[in-house]
Amino acid sequence: MKYRFDRWEDGSTSTTRTLTVTGDLTIIAYYVPVTRQVGYNSTPIAVPATIDGQTVQSGQAITVEDGRQITIAVPAEVEA
Amino acid sequence: MIIFTDDFETGNLSKWDGVYNEPQMSPPDVGSVVVYRGNYAAHVHVKSMSSVYAGCYKNISQKHVNQRQYIQFTPFNNLNAGSLKFADVARLDLSDEIQATIERDVAGNTVWELQIKEQGVWSKHPSTIVAVPNQWYCVEVEAQAATVGGDGIARLYINGVLAVELLNCNFGTAPFDRVYIGLIWTEMQCEADYDVYIDDFALGDSYIGPEGAPPTMAKITYQSSPIAVNATIDGQTVPSGGQIEAPLNSSITLTVPSEATT
To answer: Which of A38, A24, A31 is nearest to A9 (CA)?
Structure first.
């Protein structure tokens, strides 16, 4: 999975940080997962799919973490 | 046993029972420019004239008193010989006093000294330990009231070394009432104002002694969350959970990657 740098514990957001040492201290870098939008469409009829167990309507999108493997399933037959 | 301490890290003198200052002097304050340890130290700005004073005091009721503090003074050019008084154990009636002082001649030669007042009679007892400006000294004054009369004790320790010891002092038998710090008194007219700094005060009923040397290095702990990502601190790779040491008051630069993959 891919993560991107979010912030330091003091709230600053540059990946490079300069500070003056005035005593013992703990510095924390916070990362957040990089996410992607996965849109689902069926044509010519609207057929719900199941993405990782989650029902997704045609025309909807879901958010998944970058690098994550997903499984999508659609029914073999539908009646309109 | 330690009775009272003040490292002045509160940033003020609130732990003390009162402050005092001669009208031409500003009251003592707490600053962060010159400190022995931590971020703050007490400070007195001393006017160039003689017979001035400023400091703070703590009320006590102790027959055996040790007061220890770290003292630093800035350079001053005295125009006459005399003493500066930094620390005092006293009775409110001022019959007996025990003081840590420095004694300086007109050439600027300066030594640490113990001054005592026995039943109203002052005497000076210089040591051979030289006192120089811009240097921290651990100064401890010990005072023991007499038990039957004529057996009081006064001692001065500089940096943990017994500098002056006076036995059979003619102190009274009652407990001492107050300890003073700051600039208790000066006998010297100087060319210009100067400063006195006090840090890490401790009051006890037996020998206290110096603290360890003040820290010069700080520990920097680096973590990343929620994943482990290495950082670069001043060119050195540090894993999450890792620790480095850096000199106090130094500047360090950290860099982490903008993206990481698990």
So the answer is: A31
